[in-house]
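Tokens as discussed.
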């Protein structure tokens, strides 16, 4: 027995060393990949507002190659009156169940020149002043409250310029009429001076 004890001790040390070595080689378990889908929680919109490239309110319309969004208010992103062409949803993101004619608020993540269809948790249907998330997994809230919460993060609320704006015309009252009056006065004064000159020097 006295001879067996040292052997058992050496064997235990060898087993522990092998276990620690295997753990060191394997390293820590890889972290799970972050989801590419934006999730807009009405109670805490900051993460979604920071992740989105475009946050816009508008109305969906059918287009020649898909669905278009006609924007009416940008809460984040470049302001334009051009319709947004919505492409297919990102893989792994459940698409929002929206239809042409819906007025919506969307958190969008453009990629490679395209604007993917919003995920169900990143789209709100706006009806009668109320905002409802497309997946119905968040409580209803007033549209104005949702807009105010997003604007508090982005600092933006910009209306696109009207597409039918006409170029600036001639300002007749403040430009043409005063200039015409001055020219008329100068012309009249020149006639008077010419008559006086002819009286002084008839030749």
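Sequence:
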């Amino acid at each position: 027995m006295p001879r067996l004890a040292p052997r058992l001790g050496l064997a235990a040390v060898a087993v522990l060393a092998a276990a620690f070595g295997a753990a060191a080689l394997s390293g820590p378990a890889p972290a799970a990949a972050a989801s590419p889908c934006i999730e807009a929680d009405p109670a805490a919109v900051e993460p979604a507002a920071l992740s989105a490239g475009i946050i816009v309110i508008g109305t969906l319309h059918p287009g020649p190659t898909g669905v278009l969004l006609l924007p009416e208010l940008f809460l984040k992103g470049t302001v334009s009156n051009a319709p947004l062409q919505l492409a297919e949803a990102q893989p792994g993101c459940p698409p929002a169940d929206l239809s042409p004619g819906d007025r919506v608020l969307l958190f969008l993540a453009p990629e490679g020149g395209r604007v993917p269809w919003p995920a169900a948790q990143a789209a709100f249907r706006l009806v009668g002043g109320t905002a409802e998330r497309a997946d119905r997994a968040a409580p209803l809230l007033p549209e104005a409250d949702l807009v105010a919460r997003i604007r508090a993060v982005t600092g933006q609320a910009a209306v696109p310029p009207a597409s039918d704006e006409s170029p600036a015309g001639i300002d007749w009252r403040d430009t043409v009429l005063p200039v015409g009056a001055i020219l008329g006065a100068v012309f009249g004064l020149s006639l008077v001076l010419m008559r006086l000159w002819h009286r002084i020097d008839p030749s």
